[in-house]
Amino acid sequence: MSSAEETENIKTVFHYQYSFVISKIIFSASQLGVFDLLRESGELLSSVTVAERLNTSLIGMQTLLRACVGLKVLKVEWKDGKGDHSFPKSAESLFRYTNESWTLYGKEVVSSFDLSGFQLIYNLDGNNVGLAKELISKYPNCTVKLCDIPEIVEKSKKYSSFSDDSRISFHEGDCFKDPIPEADLYILSKVMYNWSDEKCIQLLTKLFMACKPGGGVLLVEPTVDEDISGSLPAHLYCILMLLYSEGKTRKASEHHTLFSTAGFKDIQFKKGNVFDVILAIK
């Protein structure tokens, strides 16, 4: 690989990492209720007031609010050295961008394997409207349900737009606690690296039991190369996993072991530019 190609790859990696961090900032603030509080209050609120009303640490809230101001999803007005915050209506476009950021690389994902045989697809990521749109665009005979816990589904509905296409809908539920609806294909996009091996096997086993014969699971996330040298995206994500979850990025062979343990037999792997794709068939 030439130095120019290496430089371009590094630029691509950091572009996606930057987008990933932005989405985490926005969804963290959303899930904590920051935007709803500021929108419904009808007045400017200080970081002290926001932290008190949402029962969070002051330092953590100040850091989060500053990041949101930097991203221009919040406004700040300064008076006597104190900043008061508000939520501008124009910021909703950035929510839509982060909800639909999968359009940046969704075409590559949906083209990794021939998915035309799968009619009913469940994506266990309620924020992933962009990938759903790419799926119905390439495979017009399929329908996609975005599944997630109720609060994620609520936020995604509020800030997503897909022209009321009846082929895309939402389903509320906890994939670890609630029954898994029957489907032809389940998509795990940036899910398994959040969890330990034991939790991953638990989830994959549930999907195997719910999956129709001939159906399967499509896993989308960065993987570590067997020699680890060409896996910068996966290594960066692994560091992020250390900060806020019990998970880790894995080698393709490690994913193969998890799928096999859950019962899947036909397991195929495709290398992508940043996110790799595994298709496991029952």
Automatic annotation (TrEMBL):
<feature type="domain" description="O-methyltransferase C-terminal">
    <location>
        <begin position="94"/>
        <end position="265"/>
    </location>
</feature>
<dbReference type="InterPro" id="IPR029063">
    <property type="entry name" value="SAM-dependent_MTases_sf"/>
</dbReference>
<dbReference type="GO" id="GO:0030187">
    <property type="term" value="P:melatonin biosynthetic process"/>
</dbReference>
<comment type="pathway">
    <text>Aromatic compound metabolism; melatonin biosynthesis; melatonin from serotonin: step 1/2.</text>
</comment>
<dbReference type="InterPro" id="IPR016461">
    <property type="entry name" value="COMT-like"/>
</dbReference>
<keyword id="KW-0808">Transferase</keyword>
<dbReference type="GO" id="GO:0017096">
    <property type="term" value="F:acetylserotonin O-methyltransferase activity"/>
</dbReference>
<dbReference type="InterPro" id="IPR012967">
    <property type="entry name" value="COMT_dimerisation"/>
</dbReference>
<dbReference type="InterPro" id="IPR001077">
    <property type="entry name" value="COMT_C"/>
</dbReference>
<keyword id="KW-0489">Methyltransferase</keyword>
<comment type="function">
    <text>Catalyzes the transfer of a methyl group onto N-acetylserotonin, producing melatonin (N-acetyl-5-methoxytryptamine).</text>
</comment>
<protein>
    <recommendedName>
        <fullName>Acetylserotonin O-methyltransferase</fullName>
        <ecNumber>2.1.1.4</ecNumber>
    </recommendedName>
</protein>
<dbReference type="InterPro" id="IPR036390">
    <property type="entry name" value="WH_DNA-bd_sf"/>
</dbReference>
<keyword id="KW-0949">S-adenosyl-L-methionine</keyword>
<feature type="domain" description="O-methyltransferase dimerisation">
    <location>
        <begin position="15"/>
        <end position="83"/>
    </location>
</feature>
<dbReference type="Pfam" id="PF08100">
    <property type="entry name" value="Dimerisation"/>
</dbReference>
<keyword id="KW-0471">Melatonin biosynthesis</keyword>
<dbReference type="GO" id="GO:0032259">
    <property type="term" value="P:methylation"/>
</dbReference>
<dbReference type="InterPro" id="IPR036388">
    <property type="entry name" value="WH-like_DNA-bd_sf"/>
</dbReference>
<dbReference type="Pfam" id="PF00891">
    <property type="entry name" value="Methyltransf_2"/>
</dbReference>
<dbReference type="GO" id="GO:0046983">
    <property type="term" value="F:protein dimerization activity"/>
</dbReference>
